[in-house]
């Protein structure tokens, strides 16, 4: 068991939450704006002082040192301002936790995947919004590419990415998960979750409404209740899609 949560709560933001997460799982966190997704991810990252118990690799999260936690889990906030005027390559290299020599091969591979090779000397505060998002994604993926990397927590990672960049992200993340990385990812694209997630956590008003497999959770009736808009599930050329209707 990689992650265990028992009665995790945050006053006025999160109702008590319990779950278990295995290695090599891709979990999507869905719910309306203000449902508590970002707060939950921040608690799991050890960045908010939640009530209850969170264990990472069997060890209470509170007992992890900062350096050890940085080598084991990476967290992408929903929003983050560029870190001054440092070059992209410098910013990315800071995300190798530990004192080992920089793994340039892994970092260059990520730069190629996210089309950043021609931007490595550019100051991060001179990037477009979409470019900065790709740099941030490459950074946290590089962080968990280290030998101790186990858990990736991503808050709306697809923001600002075009379709080709989303496909590149999905492909790389799927490959990492197949090798044992665990990822918990928040978002708003229900059809993306329908086709990529292993399991779904569905939230509303700070509470976990349901957790389970994609087929168990992403049912039109349940989604209609949570999002307050009618849903239906269609099959178009053997391709399942969820859509709203009035």
UniProtKB/TrEMBL annotation:
Pfam families named in the record: ABC_tran (PF00005)
Enzyme class at the top of the EC tree: translocase
> Which residues bind ATP per the record?
31-38
| EC number(s) given by UniProt | 7.6.2.8
* Gene Ontology CC: plasma membrane
Topological relation to the membrane, as annotated: Peripheral membrane protein
One Gene Ontology MF term: ABC-type vitamin B12 transporter activity
InterPro entries registered for this protein in UniProt: AAA+_ATPase, ABC_transporter-like_ATP-bd, ABC_transporter-like_CS, ABC_transptr_BtuD, Metal_Ion_Import_ABC, P-loop_NTPase
Keyword Transport assigned: yes
Catalytic reactions on record: an R-cob(III)alamin(out) + ATP + H2O = an R-cob(III)alamin(in) + ADP + phosphate + H(+)
Annotated keywords: ATP-binding, Cell inner membrane, Cell membrane, Hydrolase, Membrane, Nucleotide-binding, Translocase, Transport
Q: What residues does the ABC transporter domain cover?
A: 3-230
Protein localization: Cell membrane
The subunit structure is: The complex is composed of two ATP-binding proteins (BtuD), two transmembrane proteins (BtuC) and a solute-binding protein (BtuF).
> What is known about what this protein does?
Part of the ABC transporter complex BtuCDF involved in vitamin B12 import. Responsible for energy coupling to the transport system.
* UniProt record similarity statement: Belongs to the ABC transporter superfamily. Vitamin B12 importer (TC 3.A.1.13.1) family. Belongs to the ABC transporter superfamily. Drug exporter-2 (TC 3.A.1.117) family.
* Matches recorded under PANTHER family: METAL TRANSPORT SYSTEM ATP-BINDING PROTEIN TM_0124-RELATED, VITAMIN B12 IMPORT ATP-BINDING PROTEIN BTUD
**What protein does this entry describe?**
Vitamin B12 import ATP-binding protein BtuD
Q: Which organism is it from?
A: Erwinia typographi
- The encoding gene is btuD
């Amino acid at each position: 068991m990689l992650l265990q949560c028992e009665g995790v709560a945050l006053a006025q933001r999160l109702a008590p939450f319990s779950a278990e997460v295995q290695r090599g799982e891709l979990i999507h966190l869905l719910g309306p704006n203000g449902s508590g997704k970002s707060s939950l991810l921040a608690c799991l990252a050890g960045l908010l002082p939640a009530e209850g118990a969170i264990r990472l690799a069997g060890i209470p999260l509170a007992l992890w040192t900062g350096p050890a936690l940085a080598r084991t889990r990476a967290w992408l906030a929903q929003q983050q301002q560029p870190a001054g005027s440092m070059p992209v390559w410098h910013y990315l290299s800071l995300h190798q936790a530990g004192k080992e020599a920089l793994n340039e091969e892994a970092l260059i591979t990520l730069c190629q995947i996210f089309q950043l090779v021609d931007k490595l000397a550019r100051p991060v505060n001179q990037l477009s919004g979409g470019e900065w998002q790709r740099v941030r994604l490459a950074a946290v993926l590089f962080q968990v590419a280290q030998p101790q990397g186990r858990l990736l927590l991503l808050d709306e990672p697809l923001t600002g990415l075009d379709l080709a960049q989303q496909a590149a992200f999905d492909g790389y993340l799927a490959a990492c998960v197949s090798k044992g990385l665990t990822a918990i990812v928040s978002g708003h694209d229900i059809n993306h979750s329908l086709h990529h997630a292993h399991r779904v956590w569905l939230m509303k008003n700070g509470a976990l409404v349901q957790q389970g497999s994609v087929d168990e959770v992403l049912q039109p009736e349940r989604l209609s209740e949570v999002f307050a808009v009618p849903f239906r599930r269609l099959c178009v050329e053997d391709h399942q899609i969820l859509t709203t209707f009035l």
